[in-house]
Amino acid sequence: MISETQRQYFKMAAIIIVAIFAYANSITGAFVFDDNVAIVTNPTLRHLDHVSQVLSPPSHSGNTVSGRPIVNLSLAINYAISLDRVWSYHVVNILIHCVNACLLFGILQATFRLIKKGYLESLAIWIAMLWAIHPLQTESVTYVVQRAESLMTLFYLLTLYAFIRSNQTTYSRLWLFISVIACAAGMATKEVMVSAPFIVIAYDRTFISGTFKEAFRRYTRYYLCLASTWIILVDLVATTQGRGHTVGFNLGIPLNLYIFIQGKAIALYLYKAAWPNPLVFDYGPARPDMIKGAFIPSLFILFILALSIWAFTGKRFEVRAFGFLGISFFGILSASSSFVPIASEAMAEHRMYLGLATFITVLAIGVYQLILHRSWVVFVGLSLVYLILTYRRNEVYHSALNIWENTVKYCPDNPRAHFNYAVELSRDAASNPKAIQEYEIALHLDPNYAQACSNLGAVLVKNPARLNEGLGFLRKAVLLDPEDPQAQYNLGAELAKYPDRQSEALFHEREALRFSPDFAEAHNGLGVLLLNFGGNNRDAIDEFRTAIRLKPDFADPHCNLAVQLSKNPDLREEALNEYKTAIRLDPRYVMAHYNYASELAKNPQDLNLAINEYEYALTLNPNFVEAHVNIAVCYAKKNLISEAIKHLELALELNPNQPAVRGVLDLLKYGK
Question: What is the biggest distance separating any 2 CA atoms in the chain, rounded to whole angstroms?
């Protein structure tokens, strides 16, 4: 005979299995968008043993980990497991999601028992399962850094679940302690947690104590402890200056219009909950064009809010219970869809992650009330549809190029989508014309888009015919946003190519580092400029070492450091190791192979190795004149005259104006 406890475990196992099946193909997904700054280039993740550093994520960047130390800690654990290989991050996201589904199931089961409606208990598993596999959840599960949403939800649900359990067991104080700790952890995870104390007391008033007065009387100290966790959130928001100036009244959009945008956004979330197609990865920052069509949806949302408040204050228990669901929905969204503007994104589907539970609950109860015991057919059908849509949506996350191409398709007025699509296209030189077109669309939509100016300039300068135009965009980017380290770096890197502009390039590289001291590429560029500008070799070496420390898998500073170390015979072995590291990190790095070969060629015993490296460099770049000349010297030293002659002839064919090379060739050919 199966016990009730075992039956509950079987139900949770079923929920977990279905959820894992829905998200199994997400494990091969790529890092996209904020993943890069929050994980790939985040120096605070590198050393898990330095807990104080891990709990102090970059505070002024405005990225997803800013002001969220618990999120940063969880990502640091992943980094310790798999570095920047994405599989472990996805596995942990799926596990968190499964735990959330089980907590939701536990809360539903306990609540339905309090209501004492037998049919409701049978709905708990369907609600939790549909919530777990709904396609709208993909952004919070498959997009790695939106772990902030799912991890916060874990603490949110645990806060409520532990409170409910405190009323069901003799270990009341222990469960209340767990509830407070979970609430505190949630406050250090994401700002949405701000509403958790309100939702707990609203639940208590609705399902347990009956009135707010009785709830406060019974749990005065507990609610004071819950309220004290707000101190954590206030401190984190204050010390990060509004999460890197991404939250506040500086959007350039009037407050009343922003509120209308939020009304439209919440209506959109409800629509996507009912009909999750198409899903959009990024709707972009708040823009005046988002106001279009917002009036009627905003009125609808105000009606739903008013109805929820009326129901919550009603006398009938069943009405108050539905009112609680409405109040919970708006309470969960209060931090992200309120009158406090969020500059970075006016609307985002991941905000519906926890709120979706209220929608699915109302949907499931409504379906059951309409068709009673035949409702399982609807639930099975919905589960199959959700599974297919979720599985397909996960495939879009398999590359950053896919996700931005998809976003541009469904949100063509979003300049940020066009910008990021262009970034991904520009990684392939063959796609540069398309990348340029996308950058230009982004600038058409937002003429003051500094990053688009900078990146467009960086692409255009590669074309000699558009060099001056490209430089103009690079300079415009710096004027639009002087504090953007990438814009400063891009301009400095381009100016560094001109001997008469070295001092200006040096200024911009230093500006990039002033605004972003952990910018590895800028440290590497500054090191090169210090050498070109006649600086101290030791200063340049320090810059290359700093770049390596900040970004160990960055091949350029390893090669540049090796070149400088090789000037000191005592440091030759270290130089050779740095060359090997650069080649391992980037096997197609021509100059690393060439410089490594040149260093090996200094030792007669390493001539064969040097020849191999020169040959490899020439397979990568057959027109590399210096490599042809140097490999010819190596062959001549080994008395392989015919091979030496062949490479010298190729060198002269590529560049006839080399009298010294021609003299050596004549000597080898004719002995004169």
Answer: 111
